[in-house]
């Protein structure tokens, strides 16, 4: 979505007239952030944490990899500033929680489609509600990428159609990191795989670079 479209959209939500639009001095990033906040305002981190904890307790799931946290809008925006991928392509959030990272990515970059894979059902359900909410406020009339949420395990599903993959890996256990690394070897040339705090297993055929987004340490892997 370009800046003018975002402003138009925000103004239409606020019933402002067109003369006010031209006075609007919000930067592109601020406009995107306010749109993101409008869409996600009912979907708090606290509620998502509770849902995640309840589902794990009920099913005796003890893996550390299932710990819940969310990438901040600002941090994800840093990622896009560092990488600046080409227009189009397929974005994935591997372990997408309630889907806020997928929504943020769909606003920040013109992907063809943004997908999220999440294994906990209650979180996946919230992500689907969030998508519906986006449809209801009419944001899709503004040429956003398609959005798809998938309930499943990233170790079992195929995500090798991805060209820009993100995984909030801070709590992912070594076995999960190993399996992600193995699958990542099948990604297309030129695709990016961004991890947080941890890195994929070193392998040939990837360019590596590190970048700090606030307190987060991102690793960018680019398939040669
Ligand atoms: C730290 S949260 C990140 C949420 C989201 N990506 C974000 O940054 O806002 C990690 C998520 O990965 C999910 N997860 C962990 N292992 C997974 C697996 N094997 N398959 C799918 N999801 C997984 C967890 O349930 C959790 O919701």
Automatic annotation (TrEMBL):
This is Histone-lysine N-methyltransferase, H3 lysine-79 specific. It comes from the Eukaryota. Keywords: Chromatin regulator, Methyltransferase, Nucleus, S-adenosyl-L-methionine, Transferase. The keyword Iron does not apply. Transmembrane segments: none annotated. PROSITE patterns: DOT1. It is an enzyme of class 2 (transferase). The lineage of its organism: Eukaryota, Sar, Alveolata, Ciliophora, Intramacronucleata. Its EC number is 2.1.1.360. Its main location: nucleus. It comes from Paramecium tetraurelia. It holds the Pfam family DOT1. SUPFAM superfamilies: S-adenosyl-L-methionine-dependent methyltransferases. GO terms for biological process: methylation; regulation of cell cycle. Residues 1-224 form the DOT1 domain. GO terms for cellular component: nucleus. Histone methyltransferase that specifically trimethylates histone H3 to form H3K79me3. This methylation is required for telomere silencing and for the pachytene checkpoint during the meiotic cell cycle by allowing the recruitment of RAD9 to double strand breaks. Nucleosomes are preferred as substrate compared to free histone. Belongs to the class I-like SAM-binding methyltransferase superfamily. DOT1 family. It catalyses: L-lysyl(79)-[histone H3] + 3 S-adenosyl-L-methionine = N(6),N(6),N(6)-trimethyl-L-lysyl(79)-[histone H3] + 3 S-adenosyl-L-homocysteine + 3 H(+). In contrast to other lysine histone methyltransferases, it does not contain a SET domain, suggesting the existence of another mechanism for methylation of lysine residues of histones. GO terms for molecular function: histone H3K79 trimethyltransferase activity.
